[in-house]
Amino acid sequence: xxxxxxxxxxxxxxxxxxxxxxxxxxxxxxxxxxxxxxxxxxxxxxxxxxxxxxxxxxxxxxxxxxxxxxxxxxxxxxxxxxxxxxxxxxxxxxxxxxxxxxxxxxxxxxxxxxxxxxxxxxxxxxxxxxxxxxxxxxxxxxxxxxxxxxxxxxxxxxxxxxxxxxxxxxxxxxxxxxxxxxxxxxxxxxxxxxxxxxxxxxxxxxxxxxxxxxxxxxxxxxxxxxxxxxxxxxxxxxxxxxxxxxxxxxxxxxxxxxxxxxxxxxxxxxxxxxxxxxxxxxxxxxxxxxxxxxxxxxxxxxxxxxxxxxxxxxxxxxxxxxxxxxxxxxxxxxxxxxxxxxxxxxxxxxxxxxxxxxxxxxxxxxxxxxxxxxxxxxxxxxxxxxxxxxxxxxxxxxxxxxxxxxxxxxxxxxxxxxxxxxxxxxxxxxxxxxxxxxxxxxxxxxxxxxxxxxxxxxxxxxxxxxxxxxxxxxxxxxxxxxxxxxxxxxx
Length: 491
Fold this sequence. Notes:
Layout (H helix, E strand, L loop, with lengths): L1 H14 L19 H4 L9 E2 L14 H13 L1 H21 L5 E12 L13 E14 L5 H67 L5 H35 L24 E2 L3 H7 L1 H22 L4 E13 L9 E10 L4 H69 L5 H36 L28
Parallel strand pairs: 1-4
Antiparallel strand pairs: 2-3, 3-5, 5-6
Helix pairs in contact: 3-5, 4-5, 5-6, 5-8, 5-10, 8-9, 9-10
């Protein structure tokens, strides 16, 4: 009989060498492997190049103030502080999972002054009172023959790498939000400057109309018309001032400061950000390897796959090696042959109701399918955002060029009209109309510059740069793999 038991135990040991459940591979059917997702972008790529994306893209604006604000945000931003805490929590949970492969044990000591119940022992003689103690150490080691613990460690490692990617994703958004807030301050200042110039020209037209009316050369409704135009233009000023101030508040809170501490000097910025070189875009393959949200979704898929193995291991017995040593009895007799105890041997736990384990396997498999769909959706979103940003940037750049030509022509007309007015060939109102047309063209051009900055930042954000040179790439702490290693197996 004993030989049979040893044969069964040996068979379990031999069959339990490899963890149960699927080894993780990046699924072949995933959109990550689709040629259309790996190639060049289809959108027009005006003012871009195919070089590798710049990790610190905000430096392409060559603005030391902006660079300083981004670095401050990386240190003090509250969203990043939350992301760091979440990452530390994930690392702690990963360390906790790894303890399953270690020898575990407990040590105990307790003592009490006792008297046994005489009647409980069917006695009518009062038993003696004495002090007893119990102390010992118990150790156990889970053999993990079917890999439930190892699969759990794989899942925790993948979750930890997903948390790293989530942390990097926050950094990208913080860099983009900080740059956008700074750009909004300067663009609002630029538009405000153009609006004030237009208002000044309209004020001159209103003053001239009043002079003409007093001299009988204009009707009263001409004054009302010019006054209405002036009021309409003046009404645009507060909105631009509020926009600039609110952007300053936004920038200040992004660097971890209350809004009231905003730098008043920021409101003097009235020139839009200018790139010193074309935007590097690389291709779809580089994009999917670079974007942290894609990495995060892929790591969640790896964790779900590993948890199928955790659930599958519950179909099989859990075998532990245990050992204990201690002493228990009257405190005067502790550590004597009469009180010493020890034990060593295997313990086997096996839930014979496999329906519980199979239900958990089904749930884990369904979660893996959902995470694969989430992974594919994240890839589609990444590609769509990039293509959309490229399209907006290209067409807004065309629009800016047309508005620049219109502004340049308006400048020529304004200069010529001024010369004709000074030579007495046209009246002052005609010259002012030309100057007003120039101011209006400058306003339209300033608004287009704002849109272009917005497009640039959206494109940089879609390309997923902004963290690589600041946060070191995660070290592989498990045998799960990411998109850059699609053929690596789990243990």
